[in-house]
């Protein structure tokens, strides 16, 4: 049972901010193996700040972050990555490198001497990238670039993929395609933590956390969220 599995990642009481401004207040959030967790929140709620403190791009001021049995709260970002947590930000690809070079950069993070087999596997998931493998990433459409960002992140063979707004800048059709790919990845056993404003991602979520003003306002299953009248009104525009 998912609910009984030990967490793959567990953040407890995380405070974070910038300079004198505190953005996060005691955030608790966990992801279990194979789960897809959605972090919902409006603009400025603190989603990106939380993801950055999780992956080590900013330091949590209080609280702790564990990856499986290891306390990573003060660990460098690259070491957290080696332990299996990869971050996909909105600016995930290098525009001047070719598609294949981008994927290989992702694999290098793990120190693979020859990531060829992994690259081929990823082309199996994203055939459009194989067709354009020698083209610069800048020649891709926004949606294709997003696919490349996901492929590059997956090249590092993460246990937990942390994604910041994968729907940003995409047409509704491409958002559907990204959701389809994420549900395919879930089927392969990868755990996902996705920060989003787009409630379409509830389709793939096993649990949801709602962040408001830097505090967790709700955590539970999708069904529990839709049972909550105030959240239903705020996020689905329903009475
Ligand atoms: N580098 C920074 N320096 C100072 N303040 C920042 C910085 N980055 C974010 N903030 C502030 O922190 C707060 C939370 O921002 P954050 O980007 O975490 O929110 P978010 O939920 O990801 O929003 P969005 O959905 O708009 O990306 C905002 O008030 C923002 O202005």
TrEMBL record:
Alphabetic keyword roster: Amino-acid transport, ATP-binding, Nucleotide-binding, Transport
PROSITE patterns: ABC_TRANSPORTER_1 (PS00211), ABC_TRANSPORTER_2 (PS50893)
Taxonomic source organism: Bradyrhizobium canariense
InterPro entries: AAA+_ATPase, ABC_transporter-like_ATP-bd, ABC_transporter-like_CS, BCAA_Transport_ATP-bd_LivF, P-loop_NTPase
GO biological process per UniProt: L-amino acid transport
Summary of the function given for this chain in its UniProt record: Involved in beta-(1-->2)glucan export. Transmembrane domains (TMD) form a pore in the inner membrane and the ATP-binding domain (NBD) is responsible for energy generation.
Recorded family membership: Belongs to the ABC transporter superfamily.
Annotated protein name in UniProt: Amino acid/amide ABC transporter ATP-binding protein 2, HAAT family
Domain named ABC transporter: residues: 9-238
Keyword ATP-binding: yes
Organism phylogeny: Bacteria, Pseudomonadati, Pseudomonadota, Alphaproteobacteria, Hyphomicrobiales
One example GO MF annotation: ATP hydrolysis activity
Pfam families in the cross-refs: ABC_tran
């Amino acid at each position: 049972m998912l609910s009984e599995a030990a967490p793959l990642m567990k953040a407890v009481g995380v405070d974070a901010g910038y300079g004198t401004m505190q953005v996060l207040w005691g955030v608790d959030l966990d992801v279990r193996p194979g789960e897809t967790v959605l972090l919902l929140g409006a603009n400025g709620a603190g989603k990106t700040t939380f993801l950055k403190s999780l992956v080590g791009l900013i330091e949590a001021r209080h609280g702790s972050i564990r990856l499986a049995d290891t306390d990573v709260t003060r660990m460098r970002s690259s070491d957290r990555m080696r332990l299996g947590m990869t971050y996909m930000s909105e600016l995930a690809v290098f525009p001047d490198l070719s598609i294949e070079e981008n994927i290989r950069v992702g694999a290098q993070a793990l120190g693979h001497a020859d990531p060829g087999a992994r690259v081929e596997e990823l082309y199996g998931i994203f055939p459009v990238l194989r067709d354009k493998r020698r083209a610069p990433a800048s020649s891709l459409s926004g949606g294709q670039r997003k696919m490349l960002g996901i492929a590059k992140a997956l090249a590092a063979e993460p246990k937990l993929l942390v994604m910041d707004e994968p729907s940003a800048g995409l047409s509704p059709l491409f958002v559907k395609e990204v959701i389809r790919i994420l549900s395919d990845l879930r089927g392969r056993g990868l755990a996902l933590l996705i920060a989003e404003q787009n409630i379409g991602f509830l389709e793939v979520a096993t649990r949801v956390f709602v962040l408001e003003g830097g505090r967790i306002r709700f955590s539970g299953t999708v069904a529990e969220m839709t049972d909550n009248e105030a959240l239903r009104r705020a996020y689905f525009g329903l009475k």
